[in-house]
Amino acid sequence: MASVTIQAVKKRFGEVAILHGVDIDIADGSFTVLVGPSGCGKSTLLRMIAGLEEIHGGEIRIGERRVNDLPPKERDIAMVFQNYALYPHMTVRDNMAFALSLAKMDKATIDTKVQRAAEILALAPLLERYPRQLSGGQRQRVAMGRAIVRDPQVFLFDEPLSNLDAKLRVAMRSEIKELHQRLKTTSIYVTHDQIEAMTMGDKIVVMRDGRIEQTGSPLELYDHPANQFVAGFIGSPAMNFLPGTLRRAGGAAHVELPDGTRLDAPIHAGGTDGQPVVYGTRPEHLTLGDSGGIPSRVVVMEPTGMDTFVACRHEGAELSAVFRERYDFAPGSTIHLLPDLARAHLFDAATGLRLVA
Ligand SMILES: Nc1ncnc2c1ncn2[C@@H]1O[C@H](COP(=O)(O)OP(=O)(O)O)[C@@H](O)[C@H]1O
Ligand SMILES: [Mg+2]
After folding, report:
1. Ligand 2 mean position to 33 CA, how many Å?
2. Is the pLDDT of residue 164 over 90?
3. What is the Cβ-side half-sphere exposure of residue 255, based on CA atoms within 13 angstroms?
4. By alpha-carbon position, which residue is closest to atom 5 of ligand 1?
5. Distance CA 207, CA 227 (A)
């Protein structure tokens, strides 16, 4: 196992800058998730750690070793891809043993390692099968088995669950997490799926357009997003945003929406009188009132059994609310949504930064 240090790392393809100076400290034994929209540079960064892409600035260290100029096979990492890249003409056993045979390891050691990995991944009964005789989840496990047998310092995962159906994805999510709890190998996991990031990561790095927006534990990001992008990206259904103007007078503060609606400012919110702001409140932090709050027209009711989702609209803004209680509001009717002031946020309208007193 080893820590991974990424310092001021830059990348361009031709003239186009893709990573603009990225800093990440990945602790030894941790499970770190890189998450962000498609095209933000996650795979490129992972491939740079693996040694598959040249580094155009800054430094990457695995443990104490600077690896910038080290070829992939000397970095002691193992990578698991989205398309499992199994060899179709080899059995599960041979797929798992392949890298070890290439490294000229003796047969008895290879057998022991493959057997151990097969047991960890519940693949022992499938060792003589070919990839085509396996389900998607089993193939993904073989791909992980190939990584495990090498007993690397670091595992790199690039969207390994994207090709699986929804139910299997959820099952594999906890399998990978459990595997990490057993092996404790430093892992870096790339995904565009914020739920995967939230449920799997000890630490999440949110990226956008080749920059880091915020780094933190899942709940730090959820409860204290640094800016409107992170606030909107983490959480499902997403946080509601209402543009308005901050008004401060005496000790009191409220936000005035364009239609004149006034909302008390969130507790601990910063910002100055007259500042254009965006009021942010999560769907589960809204309660129903008889009056006041955000008057909202009901568009669609979505009962899930466990919760009631309500899609509604205030002026031009789409809002969603979720309640534990079962409600059945008529579409077109007006409900009053009251934000929990201890959990709502204000963002600067121009920069998107969260305003904290
Ligand atoms: N080999 C390449 N040549 C040119 N552009 C590339 C290459 N690989 C990736 N890119 C570009 O770099 C950006 C980041 O890509 P990528 O790291 O794959 O994003 P992500 O994994 O976050 O979806 C994208 O705009 C992509 O088009
Ligand atoms: Mg990618």
Report:
1. 13
2. no
3. 30
4. 13
5. 12
